[in-house]
């Protein structure tokens, strides 16, 4: 997946902070998060490709550049105090901050950058595409503080890709002492995974001290942190696999935060002066995909039928009913908060228009179709509940929907094999640029558009135009075209854009939501 330059609109982060009773049994400088952490497979930065690791790696490592939660439009210095781009837009030169040092006390050098990124490529783990898909042809240490990166082709998204946690810089000396290597055969010869699962070798404000699968992850303050020291002495992510148990932990004072709970659970906090809600607008999209291909020999190959389906959906019932109002909805596969996204052109429910379109398509008597779903919950809405809602909505215009729920593994296998004509699925970004969506929902030979057998030139052309543009106004125009082409085609129908509901003890200060790594512990105090 990909990310692009500093071209985001600021996402709303809403937090109310009041005085509350102290958390029982906790030091003022400890911080406990009740969260579902069962997605963790590894905490090796070159191998981890899940969600929880993004939070942990942001706390324990640093990247050359950053995008802060308070201004998502702007790329700011991280380990690099500055960077320049050559006239041909192929060479990036990063100058490291001389003060930067790792938790070990070792200085952060250009050699560490080269080693970290080369290892990322050669280990060939899930996030290796950050290196390979960016078109990097070489990474060179010009001197101790200067790194030169050469790309094979112009790629405006590269500066934003650099902010991704997977591009974090590792203390090469410490890592190599524990079996890590950046050699070309690192995929088979690197033996550092088990060490990285329990330790970190970064320059971030915290240090990883342990991970107990399905139990907890523990971090302590980095005594050698080169920037302003965090107020917290330690952070624990405590496993809590459902909203009810997370709510109990935070309401009792056994946790400081219950992360990403559902709307119904959040209602239980109303009137409780010890708790406050923090609403974070994510960039996660839950969508319905309808194949336009003749391959399936179904009525949905007709654009009028797909448009009829889009008009038949009760979006307000999904966003305000099922999601309790904790969601928004863009017009196309470009979320609100990304440059060019404009919800004004989105579909709204119009049953009569849906029926009229079906009649024009020769389907006035309706037809039967299978909607395939996997497991999962988005914005507190289980897939099966959403599918039942869509089934009822489409029945009102004469379309009979058969729901086929599969295990997540089987669903993804069939979806990737281009075997499913109509699905519900979701998309979570790895970085903050429009190409994170346009690259994957436009091409006939790759991405999600390939899975649904979509080949629509108008969408592809607008997506490619937007992805190549550095000029902000031209990019906005291109992505407006991309969005309109998607709306016209009615292949990908956004159902909701998720908002995160976090419940906090009211004595927590400095807590913010970030759409990539979710939490930043370095700014938190109690």
Question: Mind explaining what this structure looks like?
Answer:
The chain has 526 residues and is α+β, with helices and mostly antiparallel strands. The protein has two domains: 153 residues, Dipeptide-binding Protein, domain 1 (Alpha-Beta Complex), CATH 3.90.76.10; 218 residues, Dipeptide-binding Protein, domain 3. It has 18 helices and 22 strands. The strands form six sheets. Strands 1, 2, 9, 10, 11, 12, 13, 14, 19 and 20 form a ten-stranded mixed β-sheet that branches. The protein has a four-stranded antiparallel β-sheet with strand order 5-6-8-7, with helices on one face. The chain has a two-stranded antiparallel ribbon with strand order 3-4. A hairpin with a 2-residue loop joins strand 7 and strand 8. Helix 10 runs antiparallel to helix 12 and helix 17 packs antiparallel against helix 18. The N terminus is likely disordered.
Chart the SSEs and their pairings.
Blueprint: E1 13-15, E2 30-35, H1 52-60, E3 65-66, E4 76-77, E5 80-85, E6 91-96, H2 110-123, H3 129-132, E7 136-143, E8 146-151, H4 158-161, H5 172-177, H6 186-189, H7 193-196, E9 206-212, E10 216-221, E11 234-239, H8 243-252, E12 257-258, H9 263-267, E13 275-290, H10 303-312, H11 315-322, E14 327-328, H12 351-360, E15 367-373, E16 377-378, E17 381-382, H13 383-395, E18 399-405, H14 408-416, E19 422-427, H15 435-438, H16 447-451, H17 457-468, H18 472-489, E20 492-505, E21 513-514, E22 518-519
Parallel strand pairs: 2-11, 2-12, 15-18
Antiparallel strand pairs: 1-13, 3-4, 5-6, 6-8, 7-8, 9-10, 10-11, 12-20, 13-19, 13-20, 14-20, 16-17, 21-22
